[in-house]
Amino acid sequence: MTGPDSLAPRLPSPLHEVRDERFERHGLRLLLKRDDLIHPELIGNKWRKLVPNIAAAGGRPLVTFGGAWSNHLRATAAAGRLLGIPTTGVVRGEELAGRPLNPSLARCAAHGMRLHFVDRSTYRRKAEPETLAAILRAAGAEEAYVVPEGGSNSVAVHGCRALGEELRGHADVVAVACGTGGTLAGLAAGLAPGQRALGVPVLRGGFLEGDTAALQERAFGGRTGDWSLDERFHFGGYARTTPELHAFARGFEERHGLPVERLYVAKLLYALVARAEEGAHARGTTIAAVVTGRPFPEG
Asked: Global pTM?
């Protein structure tokens, strides 16, 4: 087995400006922070969150959690294959156990991940110690190191702090799509005074403010950095999209030659265009959008 250093990241990830009249006519500059180019299989914030957890695991098997299309499950499975570490994925939805695997779960299995399906009620209670212990027993993963859903814990938040540090002095506002809040929590902590972090949740429910603050509390002892959320652009919730969002993403791809991942990145970019039209940012503001992933399956 090799160590996490063998994952050979491209860091710092590239940062470049895109010329887009939807921003320029409001006096705004748009930069893209290409975290999708960090590693071919541990893409974007997955590398930043997983590698610190792999180091903390000290060679133990990994068990983690996700839905049927989870980017996090695929990244964990890929890391396990690259490093020779056994992985188990606990998948939301017991009804999926008897069906053919979708392309995302098939990729996990091809990487060697054992898949364990649980009913949705149990999955919702997975943070409860007794429920977690029962899941781990049933999955045969009692000795494994537990990586939470989305990879977000205090270890991962410290890993994401480097993202903010890489962007110091480059932008006034740094925006990122949010699932579990770990990337935003670390990013905001790493930015310089005067810079602001903006999170665009891709799930509905209004829980992310508290979750992000709690992650910062555990990682840093309290709320850190200047950050806020704009909860209007989830397009119905996680893994939900609309024809309007797809049309927007295709248009962005045509303008800038960037493959746009639909579940996170498209919602982020759509939000930034809408906010520019609303006048949410003063003229002269430089906005950096963190590109945390690329479309699946990769072309």
From this structure: 0.92
